[in-house]
């Protein structure tokens, strides 16, 4: 469903899109034509620990970035990313509340051409460890215990509900920071032989999701949505609820979900436009930060109980809003990346078509 139509009812769609996804041979093409910022697909449900896999062939070319990530409203993030000039490599990374730690990244080399060939990529996210795998082989393991930060007095470990995001975006735009352009392999070439029918593309064949049970001691008061009970936005501030997540209009927020348009006003599809040009599908901002790191990774969405079985699908999701995209970093404006909760939460969602934050839904998308 396009992000200009999604109001938080995950029974209506498993994915929300921005940009131009295309169906092709029982798969989905994420496309990026000149003058666009690519394509983003975001799951309408959130995962609070689980095993998420995707089978795809990346795009290719200077400045072209393909990504398969988990991203939360707290800016927790777990990544697979692919730079279009490094076709035998896959980059892995993680963030806690969007704080850039430049030693967190990893690089797996020696793969068969990731553009010409499909590979199976998997993230196994557990409360005490994250495992990245390619074609069934573990390429990296992160233990939570190894992420302790004494200065912040907390673990820099992704620990709050996340959405699945698949994207193709131009890291090599002239308007991006020098560090981002360099990381992405240079400026995008809009006459590249890697383009077909006027666009770059990444081809996604399938996505699988197995949700794990909520962590031990989780505050479970419902089954379909969650809220943060404190601005710390850590796992012990997540409360699983039965709160509603469907907005009346794009004027709604997590604290005023029934807000509607005055009679005679423009429709929701024309609302909340920003004058700042977007450089990542759906939102304003740039690629991986002006110094090659990442900052303002934000998103908003909602879902519903999917009725899945056999995998303990009692995980929760996160806001009651439409999912419109993400920012992979514009330098960030918060040292801790925590943002706000309650009525001020919309500051976390800058550039989004909807500003909703508090209650979210969904247990698993499959």
Automatic annotation (TrEMBL):
Pfam families: Glyco_hydro_16. Keywords: Glycosidase, Hydrolase, Signal. It comes from the Eukaryota. Belongs to the glycosyl hydrolase 16 family. CRH1 subfamily. The keyword Ligase does not apply. This is GH16 domain-containing protein. The keyword RNA-binding does not apply. Dual chitinase/transglycosylase that plays a role in cell wall architecture. Chitinase and transglycosylase activities are coupled. Required for the polysaccharide cross-linking at the septa and the cell wall. More specifically, transfers chitin to 1,6-beta-glucan in the cell wall. GO terms for biological process: carbohydrate metabolic process; fungal-type cell wall organization. Residues 261-339 are annotated as: Disordered. GO terms for cellular component: fungal-type cell wall. Residues 261-272, 296-325 have a biased composition (Low complexity). Residues 1-192 form the GH16 domain. PROSITE patterns: GH16_2 (PS51762). Gene3D superfamilies: 2.60.120.200. InterPro entries: Beta-glucanase-like (IPR000757), ConA-like_dom_sf (IPR013320), Glycosyl_Hydrlase_16 (IPR050546). Residues 284-295, 328-339 have a biased composition (Gly residues). GO terms for molecular function: glycosyltransferase activity; hydrolase activity, hydrolyzing O-glycosyl compounds. PANTHER family: GLYCOSIDASE CRH2-RELATED, GLYCOSYL HYDROLASE-RELATED.
